[in-house]
Amino acid sequence: MKRTIRRGVGIGMLAAALTLSACGRDQTVKVGIENNFRPFTYTENGENKGFEVELWDAIAKKAGMKYELVPMGQGELSQALQSGKVDLVVAGMTVNKARKDNLAFSDPYFQTGLVMLTAQDNTDIGGKDDLKGKTVATKLGSTAYTYAGGLGTPKEVVGYPDIDEAYAALASKRVDCVIFDERNAREYVQGRGQDKVKIVGEPLNKESYAIAAPKKNKHIGPINGAIEQVVKNGTYETLYAKWFGGKPNKLPGQ
User: Fold this and answer.
1) Interatomic CA distance for residues 194 and 89, integer angstroms
2) CATH code matching the domain that covers 112-207, chosen among 3.30.70.120, 1.10.3860.10, 3.20.20.70, 3.40.190.10
3) Each residue of 164-198: pLDDT tens digit?
């Protein structure tokens, strides 16, 4: 009789474990993306687009993860992650010490850096040493905002909720310089900012983008394995060429 009872309990526990496992596989993961960070993630006519949107889709498929994209402003992403509104963030999230104290990150999947933009006819600014007494604009809450604030020499660092506002301020010469992500800046220079602004000097630093999650999570391990797979099977290079042209100087993991 005791054996029968134990066997029944064991079968019940096994069934419960299988049910929980199946629920985990069927869970829809909420993924925060930025609604205006071209060409990485952005929303246009109600459709989510960008390099990171397509890269994440490939990663999620390899990791066997169902997901829902949740577009929001850059300033909302970290809070949404820590409050549980989203489970992951895929939105040009730079890995740095301050963020690593509060969040977990996947292996990096993109290398970039901050650059300086000035008005097309500006001849006074060629590098960060020329910013003394100047007004610098960037995106509020971004690593560029932190970097610009640490320079010490500009007269003022103006943070805008949306980077497009900073670019508009530069194009109308209300500010002297914008500091921001190189890829986003180049897209603006080649598009709406053509003949109005230019990139000057060399990149100011090097930054790595990674997928962010809460400290305690079950997603980063499978995601890292999936990133490795999409690099090895050529998907990463295909998407990179589509959104940026050419080949990356270095693949993730190299």
Assistant:
1) 31
2) 3.40.190.10
3) 999 999 999 999 999 999 999 999 999 999 999 99
**Residue spans of beta strands (DSSP E) within the chain:** 28-34, 36-37, 41-44, 47-49, 66-72, 88-89, 103-105, 110-112, 114-119, 135-139, 156-160, 177-181, 197-200, 207-209, 212-214
How far is C-alpha 151 from the geometric centre of its chain's CA atoms?
Answer: 24
Radius of gyration of the chain (CA): 22
What residues does 49 pair with on adjacent strands?
Answer: 42
- Of all residues in the chain, the percent with pLDDT exceeding 70 is 90
H and E: helices and strands count for the chain: 9, 15
Contact 96, 75 (CB under 8 A): no
Q: What phi and psi, each to the nearest 5 degrees, are found at residue 117?
A: -120, 145
Give the DSSP per-residue string, 58-107. Answer: HHHHHHT-EEEEEEE-HHHHHHHHHHTS-SEE-S--B--HHHHTTEEE--
The domain spans of the chain are 29-109+210-244, 112-207
